[in-house]
């Protein structure tokens, strides 16, 4: 009788230990999340700083009715440098960093978590199959965009306005809240999410797919190969979501560019009516093909190499 009770107690304790996470595993999970957050933050900061002048130029064309061409874009860069100085090419980059660092940290960390959750759900402990791989990227991008959107709007405002209008990031928040209302901080959020789903989904999907194909060689990709994989991912992701990016920028900067605050459909129709479908909705895409692959390549490569470095340091 006593032995039976003892055996039952032992079985209950063993079952509980199997269900409950051990302190060691919990500690390891926390360390992994922190590692992903740190690697993602650094990846985003390096990537966006590298292409900030091109990004600012692209936004200026997106929110205006000027016709885009590579010649006009580089002329704008040159005249900005002459009139406002070299560092003015990075105007709004501080706001970009305030947004990009948490955005990239959340996106990469969320992607690792979604990969783990979906892998456990579908029974794939290693590389995910195509559809869950696409879903993990889309969910990661949506999570990051939802949590950091007001910072993206502030960055867009700073990029298209003169220094005199907004002195710093906090000034943008204060003026928008006072003059246009707090809800303006989420103006353009819907096209952002609609654009992020294909962009993040296809970017992570392409990069992870190319890496999994490379694993057949039984060697880790070299940094240059990772850059090429990331560049391909950026090219595909940004091309698929670009029209919604144009609509988003128009909606974000409506209060300072003379365009009325309007819905996605109204903004889309206005762009097509005034500038044409291809010329209006794909304005600046050629510049995105230059800066996008560079930025995404740097971002994915930095994240992977930082993860490898941190794993070595921990071991």
TrEMBL record:
Q: Which PROSITE patterns match?
A: SOLCAR
Report the membrane topology from the UniProt record. Multi-pass membrane protein
Q: Which cellular component, as a GO term, is one annotated location?
A: mitochondrial inner membrane
Annotated GO MF terms: ADP phosphatase activity; ADP transmembrane transporter activity; AMP transmembrane transporter activity; ATP transmembrane transporter activity; coenzyme A transmembrane transporter activity
Which InterPro entries does this one have? MCP, MCP_dom_sf, MCP_transmembrane
Identify the domain of life: Eukaryota
For this UniProt entry, what is the primary localization, expressed as one broad class?
mitochondrion
Subcellular location, in the record's words? Answer: Mitochondrion inner membrane
> Which UniProt keywords are present, listed alphabetically?
Membrane, Mitochondrion, Mitochondrion inner membrane, Repeat, Transmembrane, Transmembrane helix, Transport
Q: Where are the Solcar repeats?
A: 31-117, 128-213, 221-309
Under the heading SUPFAM superfamilies, the entry gives: Mitochondrial carrier
The family classification in the record reads: Belongs to the mitochondrial carrier (TC 2.A.29) family.
Protein task: Mitochondrial carrier mediating the transport of coenzyme A (CoA) in mitochondria in exchange for intramitochondrial (deoxy)adenine nucleotides and adenosine 3',5'-diphosphate.
Q: What is this protein called?
A: Mitochondrial coenzyme A transporter SLC25A42
Q: Which organism is it from?
A: Panthera tigris altaica
Gene symbol here is: SLC25A42
């Amino acid at each position: 009788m006593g032995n039976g009770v003892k055996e039952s107690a032992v079985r209950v304790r063993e079952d509980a230990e199997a269900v409950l996470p051990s302190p060691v595993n919990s500690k390891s999970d926390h360390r992994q999340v922190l590692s992903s957050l740190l690697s993602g933050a650094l990846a985003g900061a390096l990537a966006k700083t590298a292409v900030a002048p091109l990004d600012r130029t692209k936004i200026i064309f997106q929110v205006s009715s000027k016709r885009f061409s590579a010649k006009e874009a580089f002329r704008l860069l040159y005249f900005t440098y002459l009139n406002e100085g070299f560092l003015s090419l990075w105007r709004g980059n501080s706001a970009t960093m305030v947004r990009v660092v948490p955005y990239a940290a959340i996106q990469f960390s969320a992607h690792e978590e979604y990969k783990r959750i979906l892998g456990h759900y579908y029974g794939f402990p290693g590389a995910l199959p195509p559809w869950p791989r696409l879903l993990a990227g889309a969910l990661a991008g949506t999570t990051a965009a939802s949590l950091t959107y007001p910072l993206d709007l502030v960055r867009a405002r700073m990029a298209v306005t003169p220094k005199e209008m907004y002195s710093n990031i906090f000034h943008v928040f204060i003026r928008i809240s006072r003059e246009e209302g707090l809800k303006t901080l989420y103006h353009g959020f819907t096209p952002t999410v609609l654009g992020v789903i294909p962009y993040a989904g296809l970017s992570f999907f392409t990069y992870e797919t190319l890496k999994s194909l490379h694993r057949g060689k039984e060697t880790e990709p070299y940094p240059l190969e990772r850059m090429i994989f990331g560049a391909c991912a950026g090219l595909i992701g940004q091309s698929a979501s670009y029209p919604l990016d144009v609509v988003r920028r128009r909606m974000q900067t409506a209060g300072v560019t003379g365009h009325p605050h309007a819905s996605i459909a109204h903004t889309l129709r206005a762009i097509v009516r005034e500038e044409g479908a291809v010329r209006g909705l794909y304005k600046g895409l050629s510049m995105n093909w230059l800066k996008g692959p560079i930025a995404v390549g740097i971002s994915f490569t930095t994240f992977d190499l930082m993860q490898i470095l941190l794993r070595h340091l921990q071991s």
